């Protein structure tokens, strides 16, 4: 019976995905018709967020009194992403996002983790830069060899408790000790490599002799005592980390805004919103092709997006690849757009926002009709 059920689900899945937008539109339209006040608060919320973004200059528009559908779509992206802020945490989500409450809560936790990793990276770079006992080459080596991926793996293992929960504020001391320890280890590692290279270049010995020296060095390394840590540096790191991992801190706010801005620009750029309000429909089939590696596809026959279903990954990097001269992944404080966490948040938000816009975009435009350039009906059909 289970095999039959799974087989039927596999057969129905493409049809359910292709009809997801129409189903949600029909569902919410019936609610609006039956109880007109049910979604009034959601439309009011969106109107207020749009007015706030436009009037404050956070959303750049050509004319405040003649908004285009593309500008309203960009405002929709900004409004939904703002719900994920821990700095300005909302207690309730709009009713129009009722199907996505659980997803948004999980995404908010993912963004907090990403921002806290950024804070840790900033602290690491600050500790390295403030160490007056190291020369410039040593500092460059330490920052280059301690990769973001390695830092993430080690810090996550520190803050994760037995139940799988991440505790940032309770583990600031452990994180501080770990970062100071890594800096000292990398410093000693660089000095040994430097001295080994100097000794090798000065000696005109045979290959066998050089191998013997290498073996002796490795033996000495294995018996080396752990590096002595500076207690003052650890206290500074703990105090700084305890303050900056709090959502209300200025550093946290700056880094959170940077993440939000990257998400907004990436989603808007990839969606290719037209002047009529149509967005790309590839988000519908984002997680549809579970067997694409075997050459099969579960796309709906005859669907215009059938070729999209063969790709299970929508990458933030691919959305920016068309912009010449930009390399945001390798620039700035921390290459967070190249991290697994950012990619995961980006893919899920891309799906949630575009599905929501395809269902509610017309209602949002209607509630802003007095500020719209033209009252154009949004066509959610893929072009």
Structural class: mainly alpha
Radius of gyration: 26 Å
Tell the overall outline. elongated
Regions with little confidence, pLDDT below 50 for 5+ residues = 213-223, 288-312, 321-332
Spell out the helices and strands N to C. Answer: HHHHHHHHHHHHH
End-to-end C-alpha gap: 41 Å
Please work out how many helical segments DSSP would assign: 13
Q: Percent helix among the residues?
A: 55-70%
The average pLDDT value, as a whole number, equals 79
The description of the largest β-sheet is: none
| Proportion of residues in β-strands | under 5%
Number of extended strands: 0
What is the gist of this entry?
The protein is built from 13 helices and no strands. The protein is mostly helical and 383 residues long. Helix 2 (20-34) packs across helix 13 (340-367) and helix 6 packs across helix 8 (172-202).
Considering the chains and any ligands shown, give keywords for the structure.
about 0% strand, about 375 residues, mainly alpha
Structural commentary:
There is one protein chain. The protein has 383 residues and is mostly helical. Helix content is 60%, strand content 0%. Helix 3 crosses helix 4 and helix 8 packs across helix 10. The longest helix is centred in the middle third of the chain and has 31 residues. It is elongated and about 85 Å long. It starts with a helix and ends in a 16-residue tail after the last helix. About 13% of the residues have low confidence.
């Amino acid at each position: 019976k289970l095999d039959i059920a799974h087989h039927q689900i596999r057969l129905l899945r493409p049809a359910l995905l292709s009809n997801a937008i129409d189903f949600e539109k029909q569902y919410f339209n019936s609610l609006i018709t039956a109880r007109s006040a049910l979604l009034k608060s959601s439309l009011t919320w969106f109107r207020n967020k749009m007015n706030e973004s436009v009037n404050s200059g956070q959303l750049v528009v050509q004319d405040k009194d003649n908004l285009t559908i593309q500008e309203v779509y960009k405002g929709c992206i900004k409004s939904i992403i703002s719900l994920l802020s821990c700095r300005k945490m909302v207690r309730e989500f709009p009713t129009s996002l009722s199907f996505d409450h659980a997803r948004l809560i999980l995404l908010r936790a993912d963004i907090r983790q990403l921002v806290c990793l950024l804070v840790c990276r900033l602290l690491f770079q600050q500790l390295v830069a403030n160490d007056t006992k190291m020369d410039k080459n040593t500092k460059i080596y330490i920052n280059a060899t301690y990769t973001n991926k390695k830092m993430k793996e080690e810090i996550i293992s520190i803050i994760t408790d037995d139940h799988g929960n991440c505790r940032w504020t309770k583990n600031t001391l452990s994180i501080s000790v770990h970062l100071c320890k890594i800096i000292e280890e990398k410093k000693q590692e660089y000095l040994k490599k430097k001295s080994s290279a100097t000794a090798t270049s000065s000696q005109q010995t045979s290959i066998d002799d050089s191998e013997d020296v290498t073996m002796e060095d490795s033996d000495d390394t294995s018996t080396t005592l752990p590096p002595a840590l500076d207690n003052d540096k650890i206290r500074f790191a703990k105090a700084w980390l305890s303050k900056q991992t709090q959502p209300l801190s200025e550093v946290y706010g700056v880094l959170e805004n940077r993440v939000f801005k990257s998400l907004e620009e990436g989603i808007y750029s990839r969606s290719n919103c037209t002047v009529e309000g149509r967005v790309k429909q590839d988000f519908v089939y984002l997680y549809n092709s579970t067997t694409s590696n075997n050459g099969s596809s579960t796309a709906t026959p005859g669907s215009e997006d059938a070729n999209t279903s063969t790709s299970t990954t929508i990458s933030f990097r691919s959305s920016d690849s068309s912009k010449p001269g930009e390399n945001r992944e390798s620039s700035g404080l921390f290459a967070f757009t190249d991290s697994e966490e950012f990619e995961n948040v980006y893919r899920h938000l891309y799906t949630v926002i575009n599905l929501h816009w395809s269902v509610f975009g017309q209602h949002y435009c209607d509630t802003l009709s007095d500020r719209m350039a033209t009252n154009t009906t949004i066509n959610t059909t893929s072009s």
